[in-house]
Amino acid sequence: MLPFTAASEALLGPGFVAADLKELDVILERTEPQVQSQWAGFILEAKAVVAPQAAWDGLLDLYAQRQEPLDPGTSLSAMLHWVATRRQAISGGGETESSGQVAGGKVSA
Questions:
Q1: Are the beta carbons of 84 and 52 closer than 8 angstroms?
Q2: Which of 19, 84, 86, 108 is the most buried (most CB within 10 A)?
Q3: Could you give the dihedral angle defined by the CA atoms of residues 97, 100, 101 and 105, in that order, rounded to the nearest 10 degrees?
Q4: Is the peptide bond before 52 cis (omega within 30 degrees of 0)?
Q5: Which of 51, 44, 52, 102 has the alpha carbon at shortest distance from 74?
Q6: Higher per-residue pLDDT: 8 or 103
Q7: Are 39 and 3 in contact (CB under 8 A)?
Q8: What is the mean pLDDT of residues 69-91?
Q9: Res. 88 pLDDT band, cuts 50 70 90
Q10: Residue 102 and residue 20: Cα distance in Å, rounded?
Q11: Lowest-confidence region among 17-26, 52-61, 93-102
């Protein structure tokens, strides 16, 4: 799963990610011990497979809160690119196929 590349899509199916999503959300939300930025970024990238808008918002919030590089092996822009190019994006409250377009800080179809 590390690092996230175009090939990661073949390994991270929606069912695989959805099975662990509740546990991953618990890890992201805990304060003691707080998950390291590097791992939080990877968790949010995985979350993008089933919830791209939440992952997009989560990465921006994480970066804004911690004001540090999310991972020395990748960049915020690479993580946001991964999220923006997932096949599903939230648009108007429903799941739709995405062209990977990003406008105004939102992943859009």
A1: yes
A2: 86
A3: 100
A4: no
A5: 44
A6: 8
A7: no
A8: 78
A9: low
A10: 27
A11: 93-102
User: Does residue 38 contact residue 70 with C-beta atoms inside 8 Å?
Assistant: yes
Quick one: 41 exposed, middle or buried, by C-beta within 10 A (0-12, 13-18, 19+)?
buried
Model pTM?
Answer: 0.74
Residue 83 to residues 1, 31, 32, 34, 43: CA-CA distances in angstroms?
Answer: 14, 24, 27, 23, 12
| Distance in angstroms (rounded) separating the CA atoms of residues 87 and 68 | 29
* Of 73 and 48, the one with more pLDDT: 48
What's the rounded Cα separation, in Å, for the pair 26 and 107? 24
Which residue has better confidence, 52 or 105? Answer: 52
Instruction: For residue 77, give both structure tokens.
Output: 């822009």
88 membership: H or E segment, kind and range: strand 88-91
**CA pseudo-torsion sign 45, 48, 76, 23:** negative
